[in-house]
Amino acid sequence: MLKHATGWMMTTGFLFIFIFFLAEVTAEVEEVQSLSSALEQHINIEDVTLSSNSAMYDRNGELISDIYRDENRIYLTYEEIPSLLVQAFIATEDQRFFEHNGYDSIAIARAIVSNARQQGIEEGASTVTQQLARNLFLSHDQTYNRKMSEILYARELEKRYTKEEIIELYLNTVYFHNGVYGIEAASTFYFNKPSRELSLAEVAFLSAVPNNPTHYDPLTRSEQTKLRQEWILQKMLEAGYISAEQYEEALAEDIQLEVRQRVDRYPDYVTYIHHELTRLISASDGYEQRLRQAASEEAQEQIRLELEERVQEVLEQGVRIETALDPLKQEQAVQTVQQELPRSDIESAVVMIDHTQHEIVALTGGKDYKKFNFHRAFQSFRQPGSAIKPLLVYAPYLNEYDIPLQSTINANDVCRGDYCPRNFGGGQYGMVSLETAFKHSFNTPAIRIMDRVGVETAFSYLEQLPFTRIAPEDYRLPAALGGFTYGVSPLELTSAYTTFATGGTFIPAYGIRQVTNKDGDVLYSWEQTETQLWSESTNEKMRRLLAAVLDSGTGQRARVQGGYAGGKTGTTNDFYDLWFVGLTDTYTTGVWVGKDTPADLSAIYNQAPHLRIWRKLQ
């Protein structure tokens, strides 16, 4: 009689639960128009894509930055996932995975009985496919409404994906606590090695975590994780995935975690590479042209938003960004700035370009720079002072008139209309050679030269260089002394100076060598362009002038031994900015020193920190 009564009670319970399920599903269907249309809208093979970490590397192939937002995930294909990992999850989460169509009726019936006895939802009976559906499309609420939706979504997934694709997605979505998603990121984070190198014991240990990530957190509750690992090994043995010998060996193995923290080095350089990546994608994918052709500021803003989305989309594909970073030069630049500028209110930016390879090998964004903060190397635009003279005044003059360096120029006061600039200190020097005027950075000869060349002609050379904020109102004589509306960035000015190292030809320098996918296919790379600005003869004369600055001019404190060295100083009104840009046989290096809010630097001018920094970097 007792068995009979129990049977009727269970049958009645099943009936009520079924009616309840039916009512819940009907309500949900009414809310979302139709189940069919909802599934078509939300479960589409093109939509089920998971983000994967990207990575940035230096010139030697060493990792310098892990790139991801909220989810630390390294995506693996089914073929790349070790079979032991698949077996561990099948044995413990869904033994009938390869037989069912998304849900396991037997397991559901067992769970209903168990939950009815417990008067709650204690057992879920979710298959791997159901768990995947929950991870992708649903909440984790413990309700019968969500459970029924989970079954329906799982059924749809089974129609659209193979079993191998489902287990692939599942093992890349499961959460392993501490911000880690997917088995490869978990293996890297907890054991500092790829999953293919995990032992059986380590596989079972990691497989324990997703069941309850907080309870089985390997970092804080390793004892509980170890207990579940032993249970997983037992299930793998029972399922025939491992032998008794393997089981015993895995139980005896001591688990040693080797937690790998996120790699994020060289913030100055990495920040710039993110900026350059946006430029590269913009140029390659047509956004740059669209921005130029946009009819309004609103249209440009919309294109910029689309570009940002595209950049993020690329980074979530798990790309490899190979850069030209020279770690030794970068570390040297950062340390030298700190040493030479101990005062906290004085900043600096350094840009170092290997002009033989046309690559940016180092740059600094400021002292104690923090990633993604304001970057003074490429975001700060300042008046260049006399550092602009080689590009805007002397090279155009020599190129237009092909005159010898021994020719003379008047270095006394000059007026052009109401504009009457003076030499530094008010000196009057009479007739001097071009070399003397250049190496001592006299102002009045520069005005006379630019006036003779013509403002428009002089600027026609500058227009071919990478200056982005030259304004129409800059086309006037004061520009010869560095008087611009917005100014130039240290990166722009240094890049322009490389022309003196390449025979008068401007070849843009970049930090990114190439961007590839995980298979090594090149997705993005810069196309090298060349612009001939002035003749080889003009360039050789300019190199002689630049060398004279270090030999016997304003840059003597930057003098170095061995090989070629030349450059130009620049100081703006009231000592607001100190510049030195120079080149050797291999590198073109630019140094800017100043305050973020322009202020008088006369107190340190005689110490020549910009020259000392430059010299130490060669």
CATH topology annotation of the largest domain: Beta-lactamase
- Mean residue pLDDT: 91
Q: In one word, what is the shape?
A: elongated
Percent of sequence in beta strands: 5-15%
Q: Structural class of the secondary structure composition?
A: alpha+beta
Report, as a whole number of angstroms, the end-to-end distance: 97 Å
Strand order of the largest sheet: 2-1-5-11-12
The helix fraction, in percent, is 40-55%
- Whole-number total of structural domains: 2
**CATH-wise, what's the superfamily of the largest domain?**
DD-peptidase/beta-lactamase superfamily
CATH architecture of the largest domain: 3-Layer(aba) Sandwich
The number of helical segments is 23
The low-pLDDT segments are 1-8, 28-33, 119-124
| Main β sheet profile | 5 strands, mixed
Main CATH class of the largest domain:
Alpha Beta
Instruction: Tell me the number of strands.
Output: 16
